[in-house]
Amino acid sequence: MDRSEEFQELRPLLFSIAYRLLGSVSEAEDAVQETWLRFATSPTRPESVKAFLSATVSRIAIDVLRSARVRREEYVGPWFPEPLLADPYEDPQRAAELADSLSMAALLLLERLSPLERAVFVLREVFGFGFPEIASAVGRSEAACRQLAVRARRHVDAGRPRFEADRAKRDELAGRFLDAFRNGDVGALTSLLAADVQMIGDAGGKAPQWVERFTGAGAVAGVLATLMPMFARIGAQVAVHPVNGQPGAIFRDRDGGLISIWAFDIADGVVQTIRTVSNPDKLGHLAPVADAWAALREAGN
Question: Which positions fall inside the RNA polymerase sigma factor 70 region 4 type domain (predicted)?
């Protein structure tokens, strides 16, 4: 097997590592491409190609993450990861870790960690790498990596998101919620919301701020009641689709252009959080994006 074939075989793993470190599809793809360039031009063949590539993509992602933190502090409004509709990497032995770490809530929790803590946590807890490999990837001793892992795990455990254990129940409830939204049934929507539900939107200053931050079933139901007729006037179509491994929805205009992606956190038989992403810079990797400002003008007529 030549280098290109070896790299392509490991590409899904490399992307999955980079995405969990960066929360950005475009930045993760760039990190993977840079990893390939370094591998292709390396004068020697590494003893373990998987270890070499995983370490390389991790180091690149750590550097990007350090600079990204400054940009995120200047971001307009709430910041969310770029939505991912499907994870290209699968490992049956680590399916639970991979699924839990992909959710919007989990990625936002990882944002609280330092870049090194995040890298150590992702490589150890999500992908099951040994500490010798992790030490090589992050440029720290094994002892230091173990300390970083303990600190990171403590932070994550303190804020770990809760999800409905039964995935089928999650999907069924999300389907009922979106049916109620399509039908304009505010009562049914309200009954599916937690008392302290949050609805938060990421538009990044580049799309209409349909939602910013609302808390409580009454407030969120009111926002949804306002959005329902607006979306109907522009012929918006909503399709149920997993988003970052959790129930979600894709909103398109009548021409099929993406308007927004919604992700739901569901636990205890109700919706706990609704996160919406409408920043076009975060949607372009999924499909052509609608002109949301034109849609807003049409909805106002």
Answer: 105-155
Verify that 106 and 221 share a domain, yes or no.
no
In terms of pTM, does the model score above 0.85? Answer: yes
Q: What is the pLDDT of residues 273-289, one digit of tens each?
A: 999 999 999 999 999 99
Q: Are 153 and 58 members of one domain?
A: yes
Give the domain-ending residue among 131, 159, 187. Answer: 159
CA-CA distance, 283 to 301, in Å (whole number)? 26
Ramachandran sector of residue 216 (left: φ over 0; alpha: ψ -120 to 50; beta: rest):
left
Alpha helices, H only, the chain: 3-22, 25-40, 49-73, 95-102, 104-110, 115-121, 131-138, 142-159, 167-183, 186-191, 217-233, 292-300
Domains identified in the chain, total number: 2
Which residue pairs, CB below 8 angstroms and at least 24 apart, start in 162-170? 162/265, 162/267, 162/268, 162/272, 163/100, 163/103, 163/246, 163/265, 163/266, 163/267, 164/266, 164/267, 164/268, 164/269, 169/266, 169/269, 170/246, 170/247, 170/264, 170/266
164: tokens are 């409905």
Place 301 in a pLDDT band, splitting at 50, 70 and 90. low
* Tens-place pLDDT, residues 28-79: 999 999 999 999 998 888 889 999 999 999 999 999 998 887 777 788 999 9
Full residue range of the structural domain in which residue 273 is found: 167-300
